[in-house]
Design brief:
mainly alpha; Helicase, Ruva Protein, domain 3; 68% helix
Length: 176
Amino acid sequence: MSQGSVPSAAEPTVAFGVRLANSPAFKDLFRDGMALVEETAAYLDGPGRAESRALDRGPALAYATESMRLTTRLMQLASWLLLQRAVNEGELTQEQAAQEKSKVRLSSVGAPTPQATLDELPGALSALIGKAMRLQARIVHMDRLLFGSFEPVETVPSNSVAGQINRLASAFATKG
């Protein structure tokens, strides 16, 4: 097919979503996501446990809340990654994955955490929360490219401009 020509019925087109889902970008996203799940589990089961015991009551409650939100977020993101990998490997059809995907929430897990609360948490937990938020944004972006879906994503609390942009995008999103 020459550049600028329209494909004929005899020339099969390649779906963008299929190519993207099998691309190095997805493989990198999958690797990064699973590595973050492992890193978070190792932290929460090891150094995080010791750090949480040393906190005062208020920060300890914030630690418990935020670690639970973090693990919930990562479970949802890992579910999405595993579903897409199953499609890539032929274990699920795109239709089966779409049915299962409806159970996965890529949107935010609760209200954004106030920066003052994040400042009270151990630095390692705050860093993991930031990594999870960035991973979530990457997955939501890929989900939009693959499925054309729109789920608003929670932004890192310290970025008020991005928060305003997300609220505007949510307000003008078409409901399907």
